[in-house]
Amino acid sequence: MPQTHPAPKGRTRLAAAATGAALVAGVGGLVIAGAPAANAADQPLSKSFNYTCAVDAAGTPLGNHIVGVKAEVTVPSSVSQNQVIPPRKTKITLTLPETLRNATVQLLGGKTAGGYSDNASITLSAPPAASITARIANLKAPQTPIPQTAGGAWVIPTVGDVPSIKVPATAGSLATIAMPAAFLIKSTVIDGSGKAVGGADAVKLNCALSGDRSLGTIPISGTAYRDARLTAAATTATYGRASRITARLSAAVGGRVDAYVGTRRIGAANVSGTTASIPVSGTALRPGAYTVTLRHSGGTRVNPVAAVNTRLTVRKAGSSLAAKVSPKKIRAKRTKAKVSVTVRTSGFKATGRVTAKVGKKTVGKGTVRNGKVTIKLKKFKKKGTYRVKLTYSGNAYANGSTKTVKVKVRR
Asked: Considering only CA atoms, which of 64, 65, 32 is closest in space to residue 48?
């Protein structure tokens, strides 16, 4: 159990506050590494350490205190040179002794306590390579209720975020994970009125650990991992026509590349050599400009490849018209002619409207469905040959088009 040295006379209440807060904050300040869940390739590490912490409560030095911390982590059972160890969560649990619980409750009136450390780090050593030090994020213990009755267990857990760590390419056969040699804790104790004793973060602890700081080891073996970088040039496509996004890797690492617009996958392809040619359906995206995110997965002994964004511009499709006039014999003032129009597009059926004009006068119009429309023309008053201009309006997917047909009208 952690023990503290007696505080100077007349400072009992502040000492109790500082010590309690120190232990609370100490939980967050000593995170090493951890994984969200164990699997067959993981190994658990667990070890207790005693740090000596110089406590200062709002400018009043309160001496040195021994803070005991148990670190529990899960790490890979083995790694290889140049391999990236993924980021993971950490867990450290601290149980405070009855003497501190009683002092904090009876002398200080403490109800909750919490703290954090923003400069803690871990070290990975694998001679002959240089050691690697990684700063830990989000190391904090939230305000935790303090048991108000004697004998109540005061257990304070904490969780932190360890960043990814890359095993050196020149690492030897064994990696050692070590606790930080020193770190700073900022802590707070809340009393029954809801106020922070001495103010927020008023109690500071400079903690240091001498002697063996190793938490555990990881064997290093196997073929070294490779790195690869993903790139892709901007692509232009036409709606209705299949296209391809070409992704390139800086090394032949295999695997697959998936293409996403937002959370929607629009295509995927296996890597051949250093290239993945990703097919995209002609109707996967409306005309417009899109940011496409490319993500690599799989591969053999390759570190995670960073996703990359590229640009895909989808243009409207072109269109053309085919038309047939009926009936064959059209008489002035008597026959209502019809024009059957087909709007030709590639890969999809057009919709929209077609208007028929003779000069500036509209003589008929209709709505295109499934690429076709039949337009009834107004009766022609005189005989002659009329040039009827058909205009397709286009829509969100296709550009418009025109065609002129001749209509011969008899007397």
From this structure: 32
Contact predicate 81/225, CB 8 Å: yes
Residue with tokens 């505080």: 7
Coil, strand or helix at 166? strand
Q: Return d(Cα 368, Cα 385) in angstroms, integer.
A: 26
Please list, in sequence order, all residues whose beta carbon lies within 8 angstroms of the beta carbon of residue 299, skipping any fewer than 6 positions away: 228, 253, 254, 255, 271, 305
Smallest Cα–Cα separation from 267: which of 228, 222, 305, 312? 312
Which H or E element spans position 100? helix 98-106
| Amino acid in position 92 | I
Alpha-carbon distances, residue 183 vs 28, 60, 136, 190 (angstroms): 10, 19, 11, 23
Q: Which residues face 44 on adjacent strands?
A: 74
What dihedral angle (degrees, nearest 10) is formed by the CA atoms of 159, 163, 166, 167?
-20
Residues of the chain with pLDDT under 70: 1-40, 96-97, 100-101, 103, 107
Stretch (H or E) spanning 75 = strand 60-76
Nearest to 187 by CA among 195, 178, 175, 196: 196
Q: How far apart are CA 409 and CA 325, in angstroms?
A: 12
Q: Give the whole-angstrom CA distance, residue 389 versus residue 382.
A: 18
Quickly tell me which residue has 């790195």 as its tokens: 227
- Under 8 Å CB-to-CB from 95, ≥6 apart: which residues? 1, 153, 154, 155, 156
Q: What is the dihedral of CA 262, 265, 269, 271, to 10 degrees?
A: 40
Q: Identify which of 186, 41, 29, 202 has the alpha carbon closest to the alpha carbon of residue 108.
A: 202
The position carrying tokens 């390419």 is 169
The CA distance from 204 to 144, in Å, is: 18
Q: What is the pLDDT of residues 149-206, one digit of tens each?
A: 998 887 778 888 989 999 999 999 999 999 899 988 888 888 899 999 888 998 787 8
68 contact partners, CB below 8 Å, separation of at least 6: 1, 2, 48, 49, 50, 51, 94
Peptide bond into 327 cis (omega under 30): yes
Looking at every residue in the chain, the average pLDDT score rounds to 86
Lookup: tokens for 136? 């830990």
Nearest-angstrom CA–CA distance, 148 and 293: 54
> pTM higher than 0.90 for the full model?
no
Query: 65-104 pLDDT, tens per residue?
Result: 777 778 888 899 999 999 999 998 878 777 766 776 676 7
